[in-house]
Design brief:
Strand order of the largest sheet: 1-5-4-2-3-6
Low-confidence stretches: none
Mean pLDDT: 95
Structural class: alpha/beta
Strand content: 15-25%
Number of helices: 19
Shape: globular
């Protein structure tokens, strides 16, 4: 590319000519003169709402995370809130942030724009987890919520997730209304903003604190189904290592474990302090084994039973357990989910507390193993599109109709929720629940690895995989669209020697679900694979699932399916 596209040129000039944009930002942009590819990526579009709001690289530009794009998004959100608010008094929005670069600044900017629109901003003064934000929206009966985070993305990213009055991330019809309001803002000068002093004096900026933290921990620890067991030897005897990966989980996870009776907990010291560079890991993502390198080294030294990690905003939890040889085995999100469903539902059943109308909710790319376990305990299983906002939406429907009692919701991407106190995935409750399961089974002489093998023997050898391809920038977006269109218009009749029994195109709105750019192919042997562009990263993700007669059979089936599908994706 030798020249900027018309759209990028127009956006760049708008920024350079806008009198509300500070000189330092303009100088940053002028210093990029001649770097056509960089300027094109910064300005070829406005940063868009994806799976959960804004997410992008930090920097100057319309396609970047900065105070101006945050302010513009917040002005649009404020106008949406004012258009739908019909309650008594002023509407209010709870705001939290994680440990990323500029998170405190972006959260305060959002608060002051809300205040400028007459909306009360209830702001946490220091980092808090995403699930606590979801809980606080509900607990404080707020109109909405914002959390400044880019979840498990690399350090150069930040993001902006928006929540409705139920504490769930905006679902498509809500997000579309907010997006429409944002698009109508043609100048940063139209953003209404007041100073911090004015906001505080007018009661439009309220600082939150320990009361909310205590209420959240009370709600999370109430999910425990074996408090008496943990208060005895079981809690003391389980040797736990925990890493917050430089994020928000340190205090709530430690305190939650302590309150349940887990006294033998060691924190990975190098990773316990907030650090926007995430300097000890390539990626602060508990889905990656590399994120557990330091925890595994420490575990081998002290003989830990279970290693737990949470991502920067503490909504995803990963766990590592010992296999029969004593080596550490990293559980997948599907495996952890299956173990927790089995433990939680079996204990409720044993105690006579399992409701007859219980429901478990998972996504269409999550393993069917958890569904098989849930159905064994007579729970109804629901499938949603990818994104915990859809699970939260089902929870709202259950609460409104009384048809079902929500028990557990989860995604293969390490997101879990038990209980009804929040509407987003919660790594805090997941860390507590999987530790409780480990303590319970240790009393019986079993590790969680042993329990997993028993579940395979009972329900079948389910095995899943995930491949992704990162394709950055404007060209990457086009490549991802091209891959999806190729599979959509040239649907295979067989793949890897197995017949394709059904091709599901969710862009048409299948099974009562919203329309989404996802393709899922069901195979004659019970396997499936699914292609989905990420809503938060420049990636296309390909999910795989098989069910074999043994562990080795499942592994062979999975490898064959992966090779066949990815050779076409890469081609």
């Amino acid at each position: 590319m030798t020249t900027l596209s018309e759209q990028a040129q127009r956006n760049l000039q708008q920024w350079l000519n806008d009198t509300t944009i500070d000189e330092q930002t303009k100088q940053e942009l002028q210093s990029l003169d001649g770097q056509v590819s960089e300027l094109e990526d910064r300005f070829y579009r406005d940063l868009e709402f994806g799976t959960g709001g804004l997410r992008g690289v930090i920097g100057a530009g319309s396609n970047r995370m900065n105070s101006y794009t945050v302010g513009r998004a917040t002005q649009g959100l404020a106008e949406y809130i004012l258009s739908v608010h019909n309650g008594e008094g002023k509407p209010s929005v709870v705001i939290a942030h994680d440990s990323r670069h500029f998170s405190p600044e972006f959260s305060l900017e959002a608060a002051l724009v809300l205040a400028g629109n007459g909306i009360v901003a209830k702001l946490f003064p220091s980092l808090r987890s995403t699930p606590e934000l979801s809980f606080a929206v509900r607990n404080l009966k707020a109109t909405g919520g914002i959390v400044i985070t880019a979840s498990h993305n690399p350090p150069e990213y930040n993001g902006y997730k928006v929540y409705n009055n139920n504490g769930g991330q905006l679902v498509p019809d809500e997000a579309e209304q907010v997006i429409a309001k944002i698009r109508d803002i043609d100048s940063f000068a139209s953003i209404k903003r007041i100073s911090r002093e004015e906001a505080e004096q007018q009661g439009l900026l309220v600082w939150l604190g320990n009361d909310e933290d205590e209420a959240f921990l009370d709600a999370v620890t109430s999910i425990s189904v074996n408090r008496e067991l943990l208060a005895g030897d079981a809690g003391q005897n389980l040797n736990i290592i925990y890493t917050p990966l430089h994020g928000t989980g340190n205090r709530p996870v430690k305190e939650g474990l302590k309150r349940l009776g887990f006294t033998n907990v060691t924190i990975v010291e190098q990773q316990q302090e907030p650090d926007g560079n995430f300097s000890t890991v390539k990626s602060p993502n508990p889905e990656e084994r590399e994120a557990f390198t330091l925890a595994i080294e420490l575990g081998e030294k002290i003989g830990a039973d279970i290693l737990i990690g949470t991502d920067p905003d503490s909504d995803r939890m990963g766990a590592v357990v010992k296999d029969p040889s004593g080596k550490y085995f990293v559980l997948t999100g599907n495996q952890s989910g299956a173990i927790m469903i089995h433990y939680y539902l079996s204990q409720l059943q044993e105690q006579g507390k399992l409701p007859s109308n219980g429901a478990v909710v998972k996504t269409i790319v999550t393993s069917e193993m958890g569904a098989a376990i849930a159905e064994y305990y007579h729970a109804t299983v629901y499938n949603t599109l990818t994104g915990f906002k859809y699970i939260g939406e089902k929870m709202d429907q259950f609460e409104a109709s009384g048809e079902h009692t929500f028990l557990f919701g989860y995604e293969e991407s390490y997101g879990y929720l038990a209980g009804n106190y929040a509407r987003d995935k919660d790594a805090v409750v997941a860390a507590l629940l999987i530790s409780e399961a480990a303590a319970y089974y240790k009393q019986q002489g079993k590790t969680l690895y042993d329990v997993l093998q028993e579940l395979y023997d009972q329900f079948g050898f389910f095995l899943e995989g995930l491949e992704s391809r990162t394709l950055k920038g404007k060209d990457g977006v086009a490549q991802i669209q091209g891959i999806m269109e190729n599979w959509r218009t040239n649907s295979p009749s067989e793949i890897g020697g197995v017949q394709v029994s059904e091709a599901l195109d969710y862009s048409k709105g299948l099974n009562g679900l919203p329309k989404e750019n996802v393709l899922k192919f069901m195979l004659a042997d019970g396997s499936w694979f699914c292609l989905r562009p990420s809503g938060t990263e420049p990636k296309i993700k390909v999910y795989f699932a098989v069910r074999g007669d043994s562990a080795s059979d499942s592994e062979a089936r999975l490898n064959n399916l992966k090779q066949a599908v990815m050779s076409r994706v890469d081609g």
